[in-house]
Design a protein that fits this description.
Elements (H helix, E strand, L loop, with lengths): L1 H47 L1 E4 L2 E4 L3 H57 L30 E3 L22 E3 H19 L1 H5 L2 H7 L7 H10 L7
Helix pairs in contact: 1-2, 3-6
Pfam families: MIF4G_like_2
InterPro entries: ARM-type_fold, CBP80, MIF4G-like_typ-2
Keywords: Coiled coil
């Protein structure tokens, strides 16, 4: 699970960095455009200052100054073009990163659905959603799964549930199947994952609704994901 979180975090941290870089470059282009416009204006004004020599109009500005102004204008143009090229490259990287993030979310949610669907007890014929908590006699796991071993859950005071104060045992115990525990933990992780990356998930919710959160999905899977997204079950 830690590897999963690291993979998703790296993907979306990179996307966040690219967005910040694009924002900075967009501002830099505006500054470069203004600098270029100013340099061109100064150059044109210098070129427009004329005097009459031998009945012919010639520039009264010194050639050295005109060359410097031309150099400033050329440099400003080059800088603007360089920033625009950098911006285009970053935008392409962002587009690719967003697509990779979309595919990653699709893969992760489909993986959650596949592994949970294989292990979760089915909904009853009456439409009752199974309760995975210990002690529910209606929970029946698929026959293809091996019989789940059970583990005893201690009371808050540390005493075994099959023990009484006088040392006599009772037949009433609080046990939870190993498979039930796995399902509960995985559903909890799905909820936590959906909550942590809710912003990214919501940006692709249309795709997920079409390909993952379909009508036939197990209601416990839908409930876990939607709870993390703070989304109503009927949405």
């Amino acid at each position: 699970m830690g590897i999963l979180r690291n993979t998703v975090s790296k993907t979306y941290n990179r996307i966040s960095d690219l967005r910040k870089e694009i924002q900075t470059l967009t501002k830099s282009i505006q500054v470069a455009k203004e600098a270029r416009a100013k340099a061109m204006k100064e150059l044109e004004e210098a070129k427009s200052i004329l005097e009459i020599v031998e009945c012919q109009p010639v520039s009264s500005e010194r050639p050295g100054r005109l060359r410097r102004l031309q150099g400033f204008a050329d440099k400003a143009k080059e800088e603007e073009v360089t920033i625009e090229e950098s911006l285009e490259a970053k935008q392409a990287l962002l587009a690719r990163g967003l697509e990779e993030g979309k595919e990653l979310l699709r893969l992760l949610f489909k993986s959650f659905v596949d592994v949970l669907t294989e292990r979760l007890p089915p909904v009853s014929a009456d439409g009752d959603v199974p309760n995975l908590r210990a002690g529910d006699p209606n929970v029946t796991f698929p026959a293809s799964d091996p019989e789940a071993a059970t583990m005893e859950i201690d009371n808050e005071n540390g005493a075994d549930n099959n023990s009484q104060v006088n040392g006599e045992n009772t037949e009433v115990g609080y046990t939870i199947g190993e498979l039930e525990q796995w399902c509960l933990c995985t559903l909890g992780y799905l909820k936590s994952f959906s909550r942590q990356y809710a912003t990214e998930i919501w940006s692709h919710i249309g795709m997920l609704d079409e390909e993952v959160f379909v009508e036939r999905i197990h209601p416990l899977i839908r409930k876990a994901a939607f709870s993390g997204l703070c989304r109503q079950m009927n949405q």
